[in-house]
Amino acid sequence: MPHFDQQNTTDTSAALISGRALLCERDDRILFEALDFDWRSGQIVRISGPNGAGKSTLIRIVLGLGASLDGALFFKGEPMQRARYDFRSQLLYLGHQVGIKTSLTPEENLNWLCPQASKDEIYGALAKVGLHGFEDVLAQGLSAGQQRRVALARLYLEEKSIWILDEPFTAIDKDGVAQLEQRIIEHAKDGGLVVLTTHHQFDFDVDELVLGAQSVEGVN
Amino acid sequence: MAHSSPLIALFKRDLLIAFRNRGELLNPLMFFLMVASLFPLAVTPDPKFLGLIAPGIIWVGALLATLLSLDLMFKSDFEDGSLEQMLLQPQPTLLFVMVKTFLHWLTAGLPLTLLAPLLGVMLALPEGGYWPLIFSLLLGTPTLSLLGSIGAGLTVGLKKGGMLMPLLILPLYIPVLIFAASSVQAGVDGNSYTGHLAFLGAYLALMFVLAPVASAAALKISIAR
Q1: Fewer Cβ within 10 Å of end Cβ, chain B: N or C?
Q2: Cα A162 to Cα B89: distance, rounded to the nearest angstrom
């Protein structure tokens, strides 16, 4: 199960997102260098590594939110700078902060996060993440886990092919984790790409991208 | 339709949040009102003298009240991750900045404009000053919001950015203050004030083009920790 092509470092057209020779330096410390990867449709990629290894940093670089970029990123073989609109049209990102407004209800929050979704769809998605009956409770009255579940409802609402999830299992209970796992597998089976950082162990096969404190190594 | 809907959704969302937290919106207005009500007590209640300084007081009050409200423009969006979501939309960031700026004007600049004639009465502003006061505020407060969005964007990521933003944008506010206050003065003196308003309009047009671009760039810098 090779998750990045060591032999073929120039061709990036087969992959959805590719990185070439990525380097990240923080406070004179190199987090990772010469990092190559090809992420394809149908893959579940887990970025792992100890705390401070640069997992979130790598994600922000891929998203284009990072401070600086050394190396090159490609989307469907095109340089990311030129393909940004296409990339973002297909992107669903959940970060450490998920963009939930506490003075709004879950339904109102999703109205803005998924403007295309109808009211029925939003209610259906909220029911799926276990928030049936909480649709019009202000989010400040919800627990941290419930607030994250509101954001996770987006996974049922939006038809985006690329999911980039930074620590999606934070504050989610056991049943929620199992359900989320299921949804991730489903999405990959439907031909989507899921990139996530987590310390959670999966029961199924995922492609690993291991970031070490000193060096980068690919482990299958 | 699908292209513009995230912008409309953002507008609706922020309007709803503003309505839920309407207490916060009253702060700049209260400040504005207090400035105007304390001057007659501290200086003199003499209408003649107050009429002389009224244009300046009202405009300084409006400018400082706007400055007070700028902190909130991007702060909560930055803290709860909404800003990241905005920057990751396929649409250009400057469109979102324009929506946020317009909302800031709608919730700060417009109420100040509507309240200003009342302050004119409290400060015995002579009759000729009311129309230029309203026109100058209508043209000047959007400029304050636009310029403020740059400062707010640059300082949103700073924990202790308290005094930095006023220092950054006050110099850019000075032309607005000078031409707006003097337009009111010209109206009081019975002179033509269209020249002053024309300058305010030109400054607004210039900032309408430049500020959202600068503010979007500032936000990108702020979010790239």
Answers
A1: N
A2: 13
